[in-house]
Design goal:
globular, binds NADPH dihydro-nicotinamide-adenine-dinucleotide phosphate, mainly alpha
Length: 255
C-alpha cells in the first residue's frame, strides 16, 4: 500500500484519538507545570523537554515543504511562514524564556507530545505541500476571503498567545518558582488567555489552509487546552482565596 493510501487512515486515527482524549482530559490532567506534583515517573529537564516536544513541528513541516512539489507556490509559502512563525518560536525560543528554575517534566509527557507533533506536522505538511490538488492553493488563494480571514485570525491568536505568555514569565523574578495571580490584558476576563490565543491561532490556520488535517489539528488543540484551562482555573481558585470571581477559565463571560 502506498503512502497516499495510508495517509487517510492516519488522519482518521488522529481524529478518533482527539475525540477519545477530549473527555479523558477533564479527569486526567497532563502532569507537567503546576500539575506535575511529585511524579515518580522518569523525568527530563523541562527546557530540553519543550525542545524535544516542539521541534518536530518546526523541522517536520519544513521537511515536508522541501520534499513537496509546490515550493514556488506563494499561498503554500504563506502557510509555511504562518506555521513556522509559531513553531520556530515555540521550539527554540519559548523554552529559554520560561522562568521557574530547573523544573523537570515526565518523560512520557515529552515522548507522547513528540509523537503527536511528529504526526501532526506530517499530516499537515504532506497535505499542503504534496497531496492537496495542484489547483488547491496558488496565487489566487492569497486573495480568497477564507485565507485572508484565517491568516488574520491566526495572527491575532499569535499576538494574544505571546502577550499572555509574556505576562506569565514576568510574574517571576529570575530564580523564583512560585505562582502569582496574573493581571492585565485578557487576564481581566480569563485565566488562560495563552490557551485561548493558541486555539484562535490554529482555528485561523484551519480556515486559511481549508483542509481536513488543519481542521483536525484545531480540534486537537481544543481537546487538549480546553480541559487544561478548566484545571488551571480550578487550581487558581483553590490556591488563591482572593482570585477574581468574575474571571472565567477560557472564554470571556462563558466558560
Ligand atoms: P502555562 O500557562 O501552564 O505556563 C506557561 C509558563 O508560565 C510556564 O513557564 C509556567 O511555569 C509559567 N506560569 C504559569 N502560570 C503562572 C503563574 N500564575 N505564576 C507564575 N508563573 C506561571 O502553559 P503551558 O506550560 O501548558 O503551555 C505553554 C505554551 O504552550 C502556551 O502558550 C500554550 O498555549 C502552548 N501549548 C500548546 C498546546 C497545543 O495543544 N497546541 C499544548 C500545550 C501547550 P511552570 O512551568 O512552572 O508551571
Amino acid at each position: 500500500m502506498g503512502e497516499e493510501a495510508v495517509y487517510p487512515w492516519i488522519l482518521r486515527g488522529f481524529v478518533a484519538l482527539a475525540i477519545v482524549t477530549f473527555p479523558v482530559l477533564f479527569f486526567v490532567t497532563a502532569p507537567y507545570g503546576r500539575h506535575g506534583g511529585a511524579s515518580r515517573l522518569p523525568s527530563i529537564d523541562a527546557t530540553l523537554g519543550w525542545i524535544v516536544m516542539e521541534s518536530p513541528s518546526a523541522l517536520g513541516f519544513f521537511a515536508c515543504f522541501l520534499l513537496g512539489d509546490h515550493r514556488g507556490d506563494p499561498a503554500r509559502i504563506a502557510l509555511l511562514l504562518l506555521w513556522e512563525l509559531h513553531y520556530v518560536h515555540r521550539a527554540f525560543v519559548f523554552p529559554f524564556r520560561r522562568r521557574g528554575g530547573s523544573r523537570t517534566m515526565p518523560v512520557p509527557v515529552a515522548a507522547s507530545a513528540f509523537v503527536f507533533t511528529s504526526v501532526n506536522s506530517y499530516l499537515n505538511g504532506r497535505w499542503i505541500f504534496t497531496f492537496a490538488p495542484a489547483t488547491a492553493y496558488g496565487a489566487a488563494w492569497l486573495g480568497d476571503p477564507r485565507f485572508l480571514a484565517g491568516a488574520a485570525l491566526f495572527l491575532a491568536g499569535f499576538a494574544l498567545n505571546q502577550h499572555a505568555d509574556r505576562v506569565l514569565f514576568n510574574l517571576r523574578k529570575p530564580g523564583e518558582t512560585g505562582y502569582k495571580i496574573p493581571v492585565g490584558g485578557f487576564y481581566r476576563w480569563v485565566s488562560c488567555p495563552n490557551y485561548l490565543g493558541e486555539i484562535v491561532e490554529w482555528s485561523g490556520f484551519a480556515l486559511a489552509a481549508w483542509s481536513w488535517p488543519a481542521l483536525a489539528f484545531a480540534a486537537w488543540t481544543i481537546a487538549n487546552l480546553l480541559p487544561r484551562a478548566v484545571s488551571h482555573h480550578r487550581w487558581y481558585r483553590e490556591k488563591f482565596p482572593d482570585y477574581p470571581a468574575e474571571r472565567r477559565a477560557l472564554i470571556p463571560y462563558l466558560l
